[in-house]
Amino acid sequence: MEETQKEIALKEFENSVGGGAVSVKITGEKVLKEIKIDKEAVDPEDVETLEDLILTCINGAMLKADNAANESMGKYNIPGLMLMLFLFVFLPYQLAFF
After folding, report:
1. Is the overall model pTM greater than 0.90, yes or no?
2. For residues 21-33, b (16+ Cβ closer than 10 Å) or e, as one string?
């Protein structure tokens, strides 16, 4: 499981919006590595649109990183594991105090 977490941390995830007007690259640890903005996307009269594109692009890249992490870590999800932990570890521990 630890190895899988390290692999995800080392991966890079890219996203672009606005037909490539804005693109970003982040790591699996969600460290922003790169932002590219097309010169044609910069309009001094319409800064809000560029801000929205940047936010959307970064959030999309983070979602890709989250989805990849969930997919990779999902293989460690054993049905009933949490129930077993509750019944055999947590519950007896709690009952010991009564």
Report:
1. no
2. bbbbbbbbeeeee
